[in-house]
Amino acid sequence: MGPRWRKLLLAAFLAAYFTFFSWDGLKARFAADEPMNMYAYWHLAPVQFWLSHFTLWRAVYRPMGGVFYLPLLYAFGWNPVPYHVVLSLVLLASVFLLYRFARLIGCGEVAASLAALVACYHGGLNLMYYNTAYIYDVLCGFFYLAALVSYVRIRVRGRMPGARDTVLFLGLYLCALNSKEMAVTLPLLLLAYEWIYGDRPPRHWLRGPGRVILLAAAMTAAYLYGRVLVPNALAGAPGYRFVFSLDRLVDFQGRAWGDLFLRWNPFPWQMVLVLWAAASYLAWRGNRPPLRFCWFLLVVTPLPIEFLLMPRRGPCLYIPMFGWAVFAAIVFDDLVRAAAAFGARGPLLQRLGRSGVSALLMGTGVFLWARHNRHFEDSVVKPAIPQLGKQTWEVIEQLRAVNPHVEPGSQVVFLDDPFGNFDMAFLAELWFRDRSVSVRLYRQTPLSPAEIAKADHVFTFEDRKLVQLR
Questions:
Q1: What is the Cα–Cα distance from 153 to 162, expressed in whole angstroms?
Q2: Does pLDDT of 289 surpass 90?
């Protein structure tokens, strides 16, 4: 069988494996915070929204999310299936990017295929396969990996990045930054790549890789200014405050390694030390550039979330998972090769030969990994899907049943609603999709009887049913 057919069969197998595990995600609804996310982009004027993608120094919340939400909102409204289809397609595209990345940094075809298989479905990151609120992590991981592949592809060929290559890389990096803060580590990773794979920097290095890295660093600096120093910066929000302490580091590492190894609970700190010692030994004991680069990826990419006061785990580890998947695939491939060489000499497996023993061991490992993921899906994901955004979905169904229409410039009041926040206003404004309509919630901003009397339309909820009073 030729290389082309092998790749086609591999692609078909990975797509089937991905679909088998992620199919249930299409049944999920919207998460509770998605109306707020959509409203944050919808209420911006179109010019303001598109400019926000280029003004990194301003505190605009992850504008790439709007590129996902707004076209789907206008095309499909509150039907969640298309949102999940697009989410799945981006995840699947990242699988093939990871295979390409692994091959470019020097992995064999088997190790690269195994890494892609791990990325198809990882139970420790299960939320991102059915919760579209994690589209930020998914988009960030996709563009981060795409930018990395675009850069490494040029360097592997022994070329310096030209103007077109630089624009492509910076465009992809811009998309990654606009997706989520995890992308800020990419310039550091490029430096690690040049140190591990590059020769001594030639005199014109600054006109090639150095230029790309410096431009990416300048973008990162502007981005960090907008996230840390401007008024209302994201770093000032309670959930994004940093606490630089050993306890915070140990807690994060225990949770992260627990998720990556599909454990229910975090690893104890002693086990974390053992894992890092083993990974460091394997990465640095010999001349294994792919292992060393993935080691750097594991060290560097969690930095934006490692010391946050509010712990992050699961889908937030999407980019670190790329490094873990490739590292683990290389080590597993090495172990299988060594075990096959040893086992093929024994009387029981001698007739299979080294390739037969290797295939048996590889198939067993893949089966056990898939079974463990399936157990995670059956015990965690399937029970959680019907509960996701249940209250939000009930209100959407009520809006569909009543199908309210209002005139442009109307004043709309909701006397009561099932939420304890502004979600009802977000849902209503997105339902009407008219920026001239004003929606007010009596429970959040109490109104006088005169103000209510002036409203053009008044709604309330009675026994969890939407009722139009006027």
A1: 13
A2: yes
How far apart CA 326 and CA 152 sit, in angstroms, is 16
* Rg from Cα positions in the chain: 25
Query: What distance in Å separates the CA atoms of residue 286 and residue 281, rounded to the nearest whole number?
Result: 9
Distance, CA of 307 to CA of 244 (rounded, Å):
6
Q: Rounded to an integer, what distance in angstroms lies between the CA atom of residue 79 and that of residue 61?
A: 24
Question: For residue range 417-451, what is the model confidence (pLDDT) as tens digits?
Answer: 999 889 999 999 999 999 999 999 998 888 888 88
Could you report the per-residue pLDDT of 30-51, keeping only the tens digit for each?
999 999 999 999 999 889 999 9
pLDDT digits (tens, 9 = 90+) for 236-271: 777 788 888 899 999 999 999 999 998 878 999 999
Q: Token match 């910076």: residue?
A: 170
**Contacts (Cβ under 8 Å, ≥6 apart) of 206:** 214
Backbone angles phi, psi at 219, to 5 degrees: -60, -40
Percent of the chain, pLDDT > 70? 95
**Nearest to 189, CA basis, from 202, 203, 176, 204:** 176
Residue 155 has, within 13 A of its CA and on its CB side, a CA count of 28
